[in-house]
Amino acid sequence: MTVQKDSLTSKPETVYVERYFPRFTLGQRWEHGILILSVFILLITGLPQKYPDTLWGQWIISSPERLNQIQQIHHVFALLLFALAVYHFGRIFVQIIRKQLPGGMLPEWQDVRDAWQMIKFLLFLTRNKPNFGKYNFEQKFTYWMIFFGVGIMILSGLILWFPIQVTKIFPGGVIPAAFLAHSNEAIALAVFIVIWHFFHVHLQRLNLSIFTGRINEDDLRKYHENEFERLRALNSQDSNTGGGNP
Amino acid sequence: MKVQRLIKSILLISGSVLIIIAIGFLSNSTHAAPGFQDSPTSTPPEAGGTSQATPFPTQDVTIIIPNLSLSDEYCLDCHGKPGQVYTLENGDQLDLYVPAELHKNSVHGSTGIACVQCHTLVGAYPHPKWQAKDLRDSSLQLNEVCKRCHAHQYLLALDSVHEAALEKGNQAAAVCVDCHTSHEVRRVTKPGTTETLPEAKRWIPERCRLCHSEIYNKYEGSVHGSTLSEGNEDVPTCVDCHGVHNIEDPTTASFRLKSPEICAKCHTDPALMEKYGLSTDVLNSYVADFHGATVAIFEKQSPDAEVNKAVCYDCHGIHDIGKTDDPHVGLQMQENLQATCKRCHPDASANFSQAWLSHYSPSPDRYALVYYVKLFYSILIPVTLGGMGLLVVMDSGRMYLNRRKHRRQLASVTQNEEIPATPDLPEAAEASNTDSKEIES
Fold it and tell me: A48: nearest CA in chain B?
């Protein structure tokens, strides 16, 4: 369950053993990487189309040929994001069928209580930060915001991509509705990522576990105490019964 | 030493004198330079009694001093009688008859412009021989006299599509006298302004009609043309869209890209639109949608680009613009709208044409789905992002305060334990502590 690593230190007599815990699978790390790539490209090819009045927007879209290229790039990376979403759903589906869904990301009432506790802490109404499980309420909020956001983006994007076919079934109003949803949701997502996600993973502390796939013991204890306790209990249970990893 | 000083002071004095002279010369020359006359009509050069050069600075300036001693009566003595013709080189008969009333009632006659001020070369009888290949050549030659007074308008006309056609060899392309006539010349604008007179507004399409009769017929039946013939001068005539003297080629890509602004001139004017219960939101709603957004980008970025996105006239018609509730062309009629969409989107269904909000802002009654999506985001974005922003600010605030508190505690601990003798060192101790470890609550 635990990965041990001897870090090299200059003084041989003070050996510092840093223990790491696995946090994300290789598949999840790849998913995050592809998500970054596609969202980044989709934003830089999409935002100029939303803000054609701005200087930078006009710098990117300078001619009809350029607009055409931008739209093609947008479509290619939209398909990539779509494929990612299909993979993500497919994996969840398989996990549900096999009854192996970790479930750590599912929202619980505890998250609301944690958020409330956190607000109280930030307002200096309490000295105690809440203790979190594997994913804290802020990480769950990020996941679900992006989950629904990307869902809306894909759905509205497809409507905008195939308006003629869509209006063969649905009323015409879905197109301007999809247009508004696509352009507003993009802004909501972009600002959300910049304000919320970047603050928590870059400014507050540099959290690279989504890239390395692991978290060190200190961080796990500090930021995910409940998870640490759970793993420790599990580990002692395993060593007591003599069993290995499941 | 003394010689050097002397030379220096002489140089200084002569230098400053030169500068003063230069400044004086420059200011004089700017005052002396005649300002380019942008008034609707410039005064005739000879009106003041002195004959200056024409305000039109070409290389072949020939200062013609009209013989003002020749009165109109002197000319009309002969030319006021019908039946006089002059045979040109190709045998064309140039009618020399000018009805006295025609000139007298013209803007020229009524403001005291004499025959000889345009017909400068003719002089007293017997006249010099008039050299012209045919009737049109005669008109084109005489047309040049307009620039003596109307240099501004003449220059503008040089940039027009008519002048371009003339240069390509189309002798029929309109010049000053084709629109303004030779002798009837009517007053077009209110004196001293560029505001078109109501009677001129009705006269203008009639002049364009002489060559562009097919377009005139469409215009006459349009919402603008029919309203004009009802006696309402609020509507645009030909020149309001095409320009007056520097009439641009309307078939170019750049004209197409900027054409929405022509329509917007009137259709975003609240006072004018309110009179007829029309929306002033048409341009904004157009630019907010697919077609207009694209057109707006390229209008700025590549004004000569061929863009196939619809502009106003692609849907509303060019000269045959109808009312939107017109049963035959009105876009309020579902079948008309769908037919219009199909011109560019051949597979468009009836639903597809409903995707266009017809310049309306969505409301609960009209395009409710769009309205509620808009409402949803107008609440979601500020609430979520504002709330998140607030949490982030609070979080950073608490983090900062805790760190500072911790640092102070550590600093005081080290100060007390290690170096109690030196009171100047806590800053250094604090710095070393911040380096060593980042501590949070």
Answer: B297
Q: Give the alpha-carbon dihedral of B216, B218, B220, B222, to 10 degrees.
A: -140
* Nearest-angstrom CA–CA distance, B187 and B178: 15
B355 and B392 share one domain: no
Distance CA(A69)–CA(B357), nearest Å, equals 28
Are B283 and B380 within one domain? no
Residue B139 covered by a domain:
yes
In terms of domains, do B345 and B377 share one? no
Whether residues A181 and B349 touch (CB distance < 8 A) is answered with no
Measured in angstroms, the CA of A150 and the nearest CA of chain B are apart by 15
Residue of B175, B93, B168 lying closest to B135 (CA atoms): B93
Residues B346 and B266 in one domain: yes
Last residue of a domain, one of B330, B361, B392: B361
Chain A, residues 87-116, CB within 8 A of chain B, namely none
Statement to judge: residues B353 and B393 lie in one domain: no
Whether residue B352 sits in one domain with residue B268: yes
Is residue B407 assigned to a domain? yes
Residue-wise pLDDT for A102-140, tens only, equals: 878 888 888 888 888 888 888 888 888 888 888 888 889
Cα dihedral A188, A193, A197, A202 in deg (nearest 10): -150
Same domain for B263 and B340?
yes
Residue B93 lies in a domain: yes
Kindly report the backbone phi and psi dihedral angles of residue B436, in degrees, each rounded to the nearest multiple of 5, phi listed first: -65, -40
Cα torsion angle, A42, A43, A49, A50, sign = positive
Chain-chain contact of A171 with B392 (C-beta, under 8 angstroms):
no
Structure tokens at B204: 């203008």
Closest CA to A50 of A223, A187, A229: A187
Query: What pTM was estimated for this model as a whole?
Result: 0.73
Domain residues for B387?
370-436
Q: Nearest CB to B373: which of A121, A129, A181?
A: A181
Q: What is the pLDDT of residues B250-264, one digit of tens each?
A: 999 999 999 999 999
* Residue B102 maps to a domain: yes
Instruction: Please give the Cα distance from B96 to B98 (Å, whole number).
Output: 6
Q: Which long-range CB contacts under 8 A does B271-274 form with residues at least 24 apart?
A: B272/B234
ipTM over 0.85: no
To 5 degrees, how large is the angle CA B140–CA B92–CA B122?
Answer: 55
Residues B355 and A182: their CA atoms lie apart, in Å, by 15
- For residue range B326-346, what is the model confidence (pLDDT) as tens digits? 887 788 878 888 899 999 999
